[in-house]
Amino acid sequence: MLVQIAQALGPVDQDYLLEARQMQALSFAVHIPLVCFGVAFPALVLGMEWLGRRRGDPLLVALARRWSKVMIALFAVGVVTGTILSFELGLLWPEFMARYGDVFGLAFALEGFSFFVEAIFIAIYVYGWDRLSPRAHMLSGIPVAIAGFAGSLMVISVNGWMNHPRLSEAPMRALFGNSYFWHEMVHMYLAAFLVAGFVTASVYAVARLRGRRDRYVQAAMSVPLMVAAIAAPAQVVVGDWAARSVAENQPVKLAAFEGLGHTEAGAPIHIGGWFDERREEVRYGIAIPRLLSLLAFHDPDATVQGLDRVPPDERPPVNIVRVAFFTMVGIGTLMALFGAALLVIWWRRRALPESPWFLRTVVALGPLSVAALIAGWVTTEVGRQPWVVYGHMRTEEAVTGAGGIPLGYAALATIYLCLAGATVWLLRRLARAPLEIEAGDGPR
Amino acid sequence: MGLAELPMLLALVGLAAYVVLGGADFGAGVWYLLLPGERRRPLRDHTYHAMGPVWEANHVWLIFVLVVVWTAYPHAFGAIFSTLYVPLFAAALGIIMRGTCYALRGAVAGPGEERILGALFGASSALTPFALGAAVGGIASGRVPLGNAAGDPIDSWLNPTSILVGVLAVATSAYLAAVWLTADAARAGRGDLVEAFRKRALAAGVVAGAIAFGGLFVLSSDAERIYNGLTSDAGLVAAVASLAAGVATLSFVARRRLEAARWSAAVAVGTLVAGWALAQQPRLLPGLTVERAAAGDATLVALLVSIAVGAVILIPSLALLFGLVLGGRFDERPEQPGSLERVGTGQVRTGAVGTEPRRPAGIAAAVCAALGVALTLLFDGGLGLALGVVLLLAAVASAASFVVPQVALARDVDD
After folding, report:
1. In chain A, which residues have their Cβ closer than 8 Å to the Cβ of B146?
2. pTM here?
3. How many domains does chain B have?
4. For A255-304, what is each residue's pLDDT tens digit?
5. Closest chain B residue to A56 measured between Cα atoms?
6. Counting runs of H as helices and runs of E as strands, what totals does chain A give?
7. Which of A4, A116, A354, A407 to mutate to test the interface with B (most CBs of B within 10 A)?
8. Rounded Cα gap, residues A110 and A154, in angstroms
9. B261 with B395, same domain?
10. Are residues B319 and B360 in the same domain?
11. Is residue B129 part of a domain?
12. Cα distance between residue A371 and residue A195, in whole Å
């Protein structure tokens, strides 16, 4: 049936394509940090409650209870920003939906169910404190953690498909049998723990710097911090896997990471500098010979495809991709080194450092981890340009013909600014409320 | 009914659920706006608490409807969203505002903050159903042609049918909310609140019914197809069923049979969606039937299987949640002295016991990490890579299970 009406929605002229893209990017940038909390936080909260009840430590149960309130507040905001995203897919990219909605929609249908399950059990978990038995309460938290993971798996399968579409395959195979999707999934899952861990630790590190040294703050900082410290070195290995996959499937994107103008064997990596579009090379950077070949193919002499593989109108904006890539890799390396060092120190002393500089570093890692997360998404999404479906549909073919995009963009940006301010305000309020310790949570 | 129409049927079931459950939420927000002043504060608090545990789940229905429509009827979805961008964007903004105010409401202190937040909450609670209703009116009156932004950006939603459906959406939401809030108050044993909301439920029922009935005249001139559909055959049956359920609700509320009223009110509103669908079928957009708009069979089958699998998980979960909520398990309870010990964080005393290191977890973590890193770096694909990644994740998990208990229970600070 679709064949007959395939031409019905024709491409249109849209003067504000860039604004439409920025609007979509803004919405993703707001949503993705919340997703990290939806994916990783339930596991942390549940682990805390389990540990507290098993070891008879009411303080940890109180901490889980406090965190669960933060969790549902962030989830509520995430429901809203997620709904906006599904509206925007239709409002901004109707051609994309019309032509490919029947393929990737399936993943979103499954994601809808996991979202449902998460919403249902997060409510039971949070409203169930004191109202359900401890065992039933902890059981109600398990679906939240599973659904958080499953939901992000579905959404990332769509992104994997957009980067590596295989249009000849049946939808389910194209989505979940996609080799590209798995490394994105694992990379994002670890990123969720990095962001949730470092951001949470960062908040409590501020409290410690202000002189709060009780056990509550100590546990609230060190648990998420150690989880993130463990995940950070593993993320480097997964990142290496991701880069090799990009080198194989999207050579032009890889060339944009480095700013490699021409195909060459034993390709270098430039640290810093700026890609000159006219000369098609990186200027003012420090070259490290053969490193790109080594990283992309694990062979220092391997041939790496350059940007000249495709005509200029099929290349992504190199400098944006390159800066985003180095931001992600730079912060990621910093986090991995920090995590590894912290684990070694802890292993030898069975205690975390106490110095103010250590705490200041932890404070900084919170925002830095979010910056790395966003930079990572910019790397993969801007690196995909000018395609929305890699090699098949250009972004300007997908856009709406409707007017008013700048107005909508301004309205959305204003509202998101207010939302960000309100969320910070809410979290500060929550932090000041007194702790609730259950009398019945003592040793038993 | 063939394969092509089944997803539409499921989307309509989802829409009915959203109109009833999400509608009751929006309606509670509308009452927030209609109940100003410090004297009515207990009433407002009641509307807020009654929404609590089901709020997030109720709004996932909308996502379900959108996803099913864009997967099964992609061209129609593109046409609808590109033409009706004004009301749909307005609805999106309303959803953001409402969600934010709702999340923030738990943290407000003082009547000043409450007044501003309440006004915003109420206004966005009215804006969102109106805008979504206006969009439905545009589709129902045949003002959305196939194509990328092919319809009129203003007339498609600023027309008699759209305004009727938008106003009706707000009115039915307020009516549903009032009936449900009355029942909630009765369950919680709040006699004062029962009377306050009972009066309002009766009034809102009469108003919503009058708008629905009067709307038939609007439809007869502006959306003749829908009017004819609603006054004949199956459409007429749905319309009569809605009317009967509405009248039954009024009598249940009047006779204080509130749990029955909860269900009949839902039926009265849900059958409106059915009536619209029956009156409009088989046409989705002008010149485009549901059957012709449908995606390929492979997609439809995969979608239906996905929904069936999802439903197996979803339906018991929803039943559990609503069972707990309607059973009153999550109701606000007066503070029981002794059950909660509120303490400042400074003076926390704990019964934490020391912990011994769990060596096996540490060794397992180290082994998994070494093997996982080696395999992941060596293999470019296939089983070797998969095993490497699994081992790597296992290393992270076992390391966390080794380290976390020790740092959580550590007592090395001045305690």
Report:
1. 5, 8-9
2. 0.87
3. 2
4. 888 888 889 888 888 888 888 888 888 888 888 888 888 888 888 888 88
5. B352
6. 14, 9
7. A116
8. 7
9. no
10. no
11. yes
12. 9
